[in-house]
Structures are given as C-alpha cells and as structure tokens.
Amino acid sequence: MVQLGSALLKGYRGGHVVIRFALGGCTNRPFYRIVAAHSKRARDGKYLEQLGCLDPLPNAHGEKVAGLNLERLRHWLGCGAQLSRPAEKLLGLAGFLPLHPMTITNAERLRRRRRRAQESDAPPAEGGSQEPSAAV
Amino acid sequence: MAALAAKGAALLPVRLSRVARALWGWRVQRGLGQDAGPAGGAGAGEKRDAKPAFTDEAVQDLLYRMTGLNLQKVFRPVRQELKPPKYRLLTEAQLQEATRKAVVEAKEKLRMPPVLDEREPIDDVLADDKVLEGTETAKYVFTDLTYATPHRERFIVVREPNGVLRKATWEERDRMIQIFFPKEGRRVIPPVLFKDEHLGTVFQQDRHEDILNMCIAQFEPDSADYIRVHHRTYDDIEKHAKYDLLRSTRHFGGMVWYLVNRKRTDGLLIDMISRDLLDDATCLITLYHMLHPECQSAKEAEEGKLHGIDLIKPNSVFAQTEI
C-alpha cells in the first residue's frame, strides 16, 4: 500500500503558532476551546493541542467555568506561540499574565460612560420637576 | 440484609462498585500521607503518648478486632448485573486455601476510612484590581488542568465581579475537580439525600451502611458534610442501639472511635455482652482506658494489672463508675 500521509498534510507558507479560542457549541449556546493551532488554519479546524476551555455562559452557581492547562500553555509559549487578544485578556483575568491594558481601558471607558449617563439623567430630572432632588 | 438489598431502592441506588471502593482505598493512603490528620500529626512524641490518634497501630488493632469478620455479611450480594452462580468442586485443602484468600480480601474491604479534623476554610486573596469593578456580571473560575498535579495542590482561583482574585473555597474546589476529573460514584452537586431532613428517612429504613458508603464516595474525608453525615449516623445508631448494622463493615471502627471519644459507650458495651462478644468488650474497655487514662477505672486497672475478662466483671470499677 502506498503511504501518502505526509503528502496529504497541509503545508503553509509562513504562519505561526497561536493560542486562541475555537468556537463550538450550538445555536445561542457558545462554548470556546482554548487551542494551540497554526494561524492559517480555520478557526474551528485542525489544531495542534487543546489547552483548555471556557464556558461563556454562567452556570447555576453564577460562575463562568474556565480550565487552563498551564503546564502545556507554558510549553507552547516557550516554543514561541503568540496569543490572540481574547486569550490574552482571559489569561490576564486569571492572573497568569498581567491585566491586559485594553481591559483596564474598557473598564475606565465604561465607568466614564455610566457616570456621564447618570449626570445627564440627574439635571433634566432637577430641571423638569423644579424640586430639590434627594441625593442620587 | 438480603431483603434490604433486594428492595427496590428508589431512594438509594447502591451504585458503589467494588472498583470504586478499591480506588477510594488507594486515595485514602495518599490522603493520609499528605494530610497527616491533625489529630495524630500534631507532631511531638509526648503528645502522641498522651492522646492516642485514630491512626495509631494499637488503636487500629483494637478497632479491627471489634469490627468482627462475618464473611457472609462482607461478601453479601451487592446490586450488580445478574450472573448465574458458579459452583466449584474443592478438596478440604483447597477449601481452606479459598477461605484464607477470602479472609485476606475481606480484610482489604474492611480497611477503615480516615477520621480527620474538619478542614480550615480557605480565604486567600491573590490580587485586588479595583479597575475591574462593574465590568463583569458573573465571576470567573479558573482551574489548572495540569494532569500531574495532585488535587490538593491544584490551583483553582476565582475572579469576582468586583475585581478581587481569590483562591476558591473548598466547595468550589470539589465541584471543579469533579467537573474536570470526574471520579466514579461522585456527583458534581451533592445529592439532596445528605441534607438533615432526609437523613431521617434513610435511618428509618435501616440503611446506615449504604448512606455511609455514599458519603465516602461523595465527600472528602475532612469536609464538613462528611463529618456531619457520619456523626448524624452514629448518633442515630447509638440512640436506637442498632450497633449490629455496622458490625463487620468498615464503618464500625469509626463509630467506636466517635463513641469512645464522647464517653457514650454504655449501649455498645451492653450490646456486646448480650451477644456474648466478650473479647470485643475487653477491647472496647482497653481502648477507653487508652483514650481517657485519667478516669477512675483506668487507674484501678493500671494498679491491679487487670486484663481480659477481669475488666468487665460485674464488681469491677468500670461497671460501677461508667455505666
């Protein structure tokens, strides 16, 4: 029998190993697998190794469950793998990496937006009712 | 006992196979090695002499002798798939050999589960990032899935919505470890049966041994639920004097240890004497003296060098002071 295995393996030009999320699950029910794969592969395609998983929907106890195989993660990072932005943010939340700057920026933007919304709610209420408003 | 096993148990599926019990036995050894129950491992030699621990050789020997070895009860039919019985023709010598092997296997099955102190709650904050306050609605639980780390040393951390990164509590740890590394016979969420209001129904059906087996499969030996269920079971047995239910099972030693530590051995002693188990009675009194050397009967026994049957003679000090 003629062995054709290596001839059938996909050979890429360029590309590198990334650690990213591969989406699985069903309609309206996402589930991410944290995966080390070639950057040129399809998002949900063949990967080198699965390093963990993340369930983005909270469970009955109100927690989002995530598993990370830190030993293998360290191995791939040592081999020169890059991280996708959501993966970096998740590892920052986990404490494995420092917090991602965009996480902090987005948190501050959200806080500023909420404060502005609160302030814009308060003056029209004061102006409209013409009453001394209680402390908001 | 056969009738009980045959009863359609809607409440208690006796799912615990011998495989699971053997697995638990292996984990028990590891657990004992790692945790070195605080009762015994408090370290210094003089402390050990003053307060014998559950794991001491002498104590284990006494408890094992009291447990008894009723082969019929140990190897009674467990609910498993139905196979026709196999009959073999043996000579006298072969029969003795088979009995000896059965005794060795029974000894393995009668290995007592550990008795540990309740574990200290974990509250350790690793980081506090106040910037993250209000960004998330639910907490994240991160589990380290490295295959080679023991479960006790596994990193399980929780990032709360207010930005605090803390170590997970024992309940969260147990749940996560069961999700990612499932163990046979254990559920992610503990069955409702272990709540106090439902234990009463179990006790009415005389299924103390089954609930204790389920408890061993479900909980860690130093968790609060394990200790609570065990103590509730022992209290019920002592209240209704149903000691024979646990005799010749691996829970008997734990029950005797519990009763002797709380000085509630009267019913057990009377039960042993009424069943003509005088050796067991002497073992019980010896254990009592080992654990409470300051009591009067212990001092008398020490002076008079009483051994064996003298300890329980009706005019002995033990009968007068303790019962």
Automatic annotation (TrEMBL), chain A:
GO MF entries: structural constituent of ribosome
Pfam entry (one): Ribosomal_S16
GO cellular component: mitochondrial inner membrane; mitochondrial matrix; small ribosomal subunit
UniProt keywords, alphabetically: Mitochondrion, Ribonucleoprotein, Ribosomal protein
Residue span of region Disordered: 107-136
SUPFAM superfamilies: Ribosomal protein S16
Any one of the GO BP annotations: translation
Superkingdom of this protein's organism: Eukaryota
Statement: the UniProt record of this protein carries the keyword RNA-binding: no
InterPro entries: Ribosomal_bS16, Ribosomal_bS16_dom_sf
UniProt subcellular location: Mitochondrion
Coiled-coil segments: none
Similarity remark: Belongs to the bacterial ribosomal protein bS16 family.
HAMAP family with a match to the protein in the record: Ribosomal_bS16
Protein name: Small ribosomal subunit protein bS16m
Source organism of this protein record: Gallus gallus (Chicken)
Automatic annotation (TrEMBL), chain B:
InterPro entries: Ribosomal_mS22 (IPR019374)
Highest taxon, organism lineage: Eukaryota
Protein name: Mitochondrial ribosomal protein S22
Source organism of this protein record: Gallus gallus (Chicken)
